[in-house]
Design a protein that fits this description.
0% strand, single chain, ABC transporter involved in vitamin B12 uptake, BtuC, mainly alpha
């Protein structure tokens, strides 16, 4: 791709993504079992709208949309950082086990320690962090390599999955409350969930912008980065920690939502290149768009059934990813 063509794509995407973001947000607010017009939404926010519409918008749809935005942004940012650190477009929080670590901690909290459910975001982050540290230590041999990290992550992912299944078998009478969370979704999420995850999500996303420079330097290769005076292992470690925090925040509220951190950064990378100055913000906005749109479709198009958004994203993401693989655009 020529520099001129890439710059043109970046310009177009910088215009298209904000427009799509606004359109999808309003689509999610208006569409559902009860359709609400844009005029009524205006009345709800700026005048006295109908009480039933006001309750639907303010109490049900608005917090769910905001949570979807934060979850999608966190997952996409996490995937983008992991793919850069590991120099592998197959890296994402779900595949290398970071999401499973957060998920195991969340399941332990929900099933064994339900009285501490208010600590779910912190527990998910700690689970993701411990998993990341374990992967890093297992992959260490006078330094780490992206291949070793991927292999260690796959093994850890399988182990954590087995432990989660074991807990659900032992405490089968409590599994019913956990199953929707395992499928991934925003069903029943409201202001309470937004209040305890928003600070973590916003701080994590802000910190991710400070990771743009080190992520770009790591793309040059370890030797080149060291020649420029960079502490490669320290930077790689800190970026993995940040990616774990982003994944843990998303998992704590939305459950095991897959493919967002894998597909979104990969598509954006194809369109705008590897420069994290563009890749990261476009991935965050695109991840938010995808999750909010998919959640709207999952709760509206299959009425009266509300499909978990994680199932819908897997059904859409897996075939799309296979198409990219078939066209040899993955590796």
């Amino acid at each position: 791709m020529t520099i001129q063509k890439r710059n043109l794509r970046r310009k177009y995407i910088s215009i298209i993504t904000p427009i799509l973001f606004i359109v999808v947000t309003f689509y999610s607010l208006t569409y559902g079992p009860v359709s609400i017009s844009l005029a009524e939404i205006w009345h709800v926010f700026f005048q006295d709208g109908e009480s039933i519409h006001q309750k639907i918008i303010i109490d049900v749809r608005l917090p769910r949309v905001i949570i979807g935005i934060l979850v999608g942004g966190c997952l996409a940012a996490s995937g983008a950082l992991l793919q850069g650190v590991m120099k592998n477009p197959l890296a994402d929080p779900g595949i290398i086990g970071v999401s499973s670590g957060a998920g195991l901690a969340a399941i332990i909290t929900m099933v064994l320690l339900p009285q501490y459910s208010f600590l779910l975001p912190i527990a998910a982050f700690i689970g993701a962090l411990i998993t990341s540290l374990a992967i890093y230590v297992l992959a260490w041999d006078r330094g780490t390599s992206p291949v070793k990290i991927i292999l260690a992550g796959v093994a850890i992912n399988a182990l954590l999955g087995a432990v989660m299944n074991g807990i659900m078998v032992v405490y089968s009478e409590r599994v019913q409350a956990v199953l929707p969370w395992l499928a991934g979704g925003l069903t029943g999420r409201g202001w309470f969930h937004l209040e305890f995850m928003a600070p973590y999500a916003i701080i994590s996303i802000i910190l991710s912008f400070f990771a743009i420079k080190p992520a770009n330097l790591l793309l040059l290769g370890d030797d080149s980065a060291k020649l420029l005076g960079q502490k490669v292992e320290v930077q790689r470690f800190l970026l993995i920690i940040l990616a774990s925090l982003l994944a843990g925040v998303a998992v704590s509220v939305a459950g095991l939502v897959g493919f967002v951190g894998l597909v979104v950064p990969h598509i954006i990378r194809i369109l705008v290149g590897d420069d994290y100055t563009f890749l990261l913000p476009f991935s965050i906005v695109s991840g938010a768009i995808l999750v909010v749109f998919a959640d709207t479709v999952a709760r509206s198009w299959f009425d009266p059934i509300e499909l978990p958004v994680g199932i819908l994203l897997a059904c859409l993401g897996a075939p799309f990813f296979l198409i990219l693989l078939r066209k040899r655009r993955i590796l």
